[in-house]
Automatic annotation (TrEMBL):
Keywords assigned by UniProt, alphabetized: Activator, DNA-binding, Transcription, Transcription regulation
Gene3D superfamilies, per the entry: 3.40.190.290, Winged helix-like DNA-binding domain superfamily/Winged helix DNA-binding domain
Domain HTH lysR-type per the UniProt entry, residue ranges: 1-58
Any one GO biological process: regulation of DNA-templated transcription initiation
Name the record gives this protein: DNA-binding transcriptional LysR family regulator
Molecular function via GO: DNA binding; DNA-binding transcription factor activity
Keyword presence, DNA-binding: yes
Family annotation (InterPro entries): LysR_HTH_N, LysR_subst-bd, WH-like_DNA-bd_sf, WH_DNA-bd_sf
Similarity remark: Belongs to the LysR transcriptional regulatory family.
A Pfam family recorded for this sequence: HTH_1
Entry superkingdom: Bacteria
Length: 309
């Protein structure tokens, strides 16, 4: 099993075609077929099934492709670190952002990293906290934003900010000038993130402590859908301020901070404790932290309080 064979496996998996993979890898198709045949012989398993729409990975193929992608990422990072430009930061960095913070941070983060380190390619994976933790553990991202996460054997975390949560409703429903008492949600229809989403846990814990029952009419793992359902009058929801800035500004949603009691989440910068930090991630982390600090202290992140360095 060698690198060329693994790259061939992944190219076919992504294109669904040996012919397209051959073009992508600048190989003749018999060489592509030979690489896959040798992999199958070594693994003792069929890696692809040929279907009407192309070549599809088998269960064994998906497992090998997953580990192969990780191996190639590690090799690419090693190659970047030992490259000839000793003083230049180069390579590829994958960052995991929470769905609620991505629209606020992603564009400016890429711009800052690229301006300071033009040889760095920035990749951003966006998901909910559970997804991001899995990406960190699997080595698919090097840096990530999480919330209400503590240091463990697998993660190193640095607390950055506390962000207030907002009750949101259809346009004109909620007065933004005063906090919204949690008790006023009693028996109201609610649209919430799917369990076991971290935000869902925070909301359910707060409601349980306050002795409040609500009518959960819809659950979704899509932030845009959650906001759309609220906009169309299906119910209310609770979201962090960073997720709703644009909607509150343009009036497509109404909202106010949760009050009595106040409700917030803590956002932390996380790294995998078991992996050596690459020069790219060491260089980019201050850019992410600095951007967030500027937004909070400059008022561009309403409802957030800076607690980091």
């Amino acid at each position: 099993m060698d690198i060329k064979q693994i790259r061939t496996l992944i190219a076919i998996a992504e294109t669904g075609s040996a012919t397209k993979a051959a073009e992508l890898l600048h190989l003749v198709q018999p060489a592509v077929s030979r690489h896959i045949r040798m992999l199958e012989e070594e693994c003792g398993a069929l890696l692809f099934e040929r279907e009407r729409h192309g070549m599809v990975l088998t269960d064994a193929g998906r497992t090998l492709a997953e580990y192969g992608r990780r191996a190639l990422r590690e090799l690419d990072k090693a190659r970047a670190e030992i490259g000839p430009a000793a003083n230049a930061i180069s390579g590829r960095l994958m960052i995991g952002l929470l769905a609620s913070t991505s629209s606020l941070l992603a564009t400016e983060l890429v711009a800052r990293v690229r301006a300071k380190h033009p040889a760095v390619t920035v990749g951003i994976n966006v998901g909910y906290a559970g997804n991001v933790v899995q990406w960190l553990e699997a080595g698919e991202v090097e840096l990530a934003l999480l919330y209400d996460t503590r240091a463990s054997n697998g993660l190193q975390v640095e607390a950055l900010l506390d962000e207030r949560l907002y009750v949101i409703g259809p346009p004109g429903e909620i007065d933004a000038s005063t906090p919204f008492p949690l008790k006023q949600l009693r028996d109201r229809p609610m649209i919430l993130p799917n369990a076991p989403h971290g935000l869902r846990s925070i909301i359910e814990h707060a409601l349980a402590v306050a002795g409040i029952s609500v009518d959960v009419v819809a659950e979704t793992n899509a932030l845009d859908l959650q906001k759309s359902l609220v906009n169309k009058g299906f119910g209310y929801s609770i979201l962090p301020s960073s997720a709703i800035l644009d909607e509150l500004r343009d009036g497509t949603l109404s909202g106010a901070p949760v009050g009595t009691p106040d409700l917030s989440r803590r956002i932390v910068l996380a790294r995998a404790a078991t992996r050596r930090a690459s020069p790219v991630s060491v260089a980019a982390a201050p850019e992410l932290v600095g951007l967030m600090k500027e937004m909070v202290l400059g008022g561009a992140w309403p409802g957030a309080a800076w607690i980091g360095r």
